[in-house]
Amino acid sequence: MTALVIDDSRLARAELRHLLQAFVDVEVVGEARHADEARTQIQALQPDVLFLDIHMPGQSGFELLASLEAAPHVIFTTAYDEYALRAFEANALDYLVKPVMEARLATALEKARARLVAPAAPTAPEPAVLPLTAQDQVFVKDGERCWFVRLADVKLFEINGSYTQIYFENHRPLIPRTLQHLETRLDPKVFFRANRQQIINLKWVESIEPWFSNTLKIKLREGPEVEVSRKQSVQFRELLSL
């Protein structure tokens, strides 16, 4: 089993390498300090498993995974325990909280071995998941506060650190979802990906004006202004033109 260790801390990488020496079937083929370095290493080394930190300079571990067309198996290694649910939603094999204990590491590696040697069983195609309509209501929880929100009332979804912030009424809760995930669930006739950071509700557009380099700037009713990327500006014009 080949492994790539991704962590911005040199001491954390060295400690994990030391722990992995106890497992003779594991070969650490490389290290990376941040997402850009990791992408290069993943492409060049094609490791079986990533030992991946979450908080790193530049992009987080979740953002790195979202940027990959195909990712190796992932074992998260982090000093924070609050991202465990999101990690397993990203199909992680395991979630190890630093300092990593050898017994927990052994359990995680067992999961990796089982996944790597298991034959690919034929599976029936999953039924297509229909997009949520603007009239659908969704449950939103942020800390101790909860809402049942009609999607038509949501003006904007915006990346905020490792979370996505939802704009509705005067509320701005955070949810542990990526924009990529939300795009698969939202009706593309209503919700538009304006740029890498934001999805807007077209029903809340108040005004549109030309912006720099043939891009657009959109003002949302009772909401912020959103700059549309050059690529998405082209798509926006095509989408809404006769």
TrEMBL record:
Domain spans labelled Response regulatory? 2-113
Q: Does the keyword Transport apply?
A: no
Q: Which InterPro entries match?
A: CheY-like_superfamily, LytR-like, LytTR_DNA-bd_dom, Sig_transdc_resp-reg_receiver
Q: Does the keyword Phosphoprotein apply?
A: yes
Q: Name one GO molecular function term.
A: phosphorelay response regulator activity
Spell out which residues are annotated as carrying 4-aspartylphosphate: 53
Q: Which residues form the HTH LytTR-type domain?
A: 140-242
* Keywords, in A-Z order: Phosphoprotein
Superkingdom of origin organism: Bacteria
Q: What is this protein called?
A: Two component transcriptional regulator, LytTR family
